[in-house]
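To assess whether ligand presence alters the predicted conformation, the chain was also submitted together with adenosine-5'-diphosphate. Input:
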Amino acid sequence: MNLRDIIYDESIKFILSGGKGGVGKTSCAGAIAVLSAEYGLRTLVISTDPAHSLSDSVDQNLSGGDVIKIEGIENLWGMEINTEKGMKEFQENLGQMQGPEVEMASQLMGGLDSMAPPGSDEAMAFGKMLEFIGDPNFDRVVFDTAPTGHTLKLLELPDLLDSWLGKMLTLRQRISSMMSGFKAFLGGGMPDEDDSWKMLQQTKEKIRAASIALADEKLTQFVVVMIPEAMAVFETQRLLSSLNKWSIPVSNIIVNQLVPENPSCPFCTSRRRMQQANLKDIRDLYHDLHITEVPLFDHEIRGIDELRRLGKILVGEADTQ
Ligand SMILES: Nc1ncnc2c1ncn2[C@@H]1O[C@H](COP(=O)(O)OP(=O)(O)O)[C@@H](O)[C@H]1O
Ligand SMILES: [Mg+2]
């Protein structure tokens, strides 16, 4: 599947763009979102990068942590995930979990803070992803991910969270059977089912479902964005092997910021030569993936019109020269 097939395939629900910092992940996510929306798909574009730039890219403030309708275009909504706000909400939720089991669990685990899930920033971003996986309000969700390291942590979270939740639930079961023993001994009834624990169980199930959706090539595509420079090649290698490990489908690489030909500019010519040599290596290295070349624009990519222009290049409807 090339980018055009992916963007115009209604059954593809999740598109993630990822790569090194500054290569053009946000611009590409924005462009893909604009094309999806104009194709008629109700589209949500979400930034999971703590250093948000989606607002700048679509030229509208999306920083509140809520889903916001993007102006000037039909069918498009955006959101920048606010991890601090999300973490606070989560801790408040934990704080509201009451009852003897929670007190004992908290003592056993060394306080409520150590009951927080692993990788808190990423956990928040992942939690938000979970909310929109299976959300019937959107036909498509485009994720503008954080630079590679952060995103890799996010992708390994389902496993980590699954085992963390598993531990919590086992602990809960043990404590609760101990408590019911006590209560029976003291003449009390069985402990009440606590909604918070039910929530943990449901979260565990949702994470399972999300991992399955993210690994399903009929639903999900990860698009790698890179620039034709050696450092980016190394990072792409690392990203691709991790995507492979977590079974996230990837079939496309966008090579961005290619310097156009300009014989009267020695600087451009020398940069172009370096880039073209790297581009050749990239083509050899990833011959089994679709590669889309995007030229370096002479201005920033900002606002819906510019994103559409970039989008047309991604789907092969524009002259790349
Ligand atoms: N092909 C391009 N030509 C010109 N400027 C670009 C191009 N791609 C990205 N940019 C600019 O580079 C900067 C970084 O792009 P961005 O999409 O925010 O990267 P990332 O999300 O990977 O950090 C932005 O100012 C964007 O407008
Ligand atoms: Mg970005």
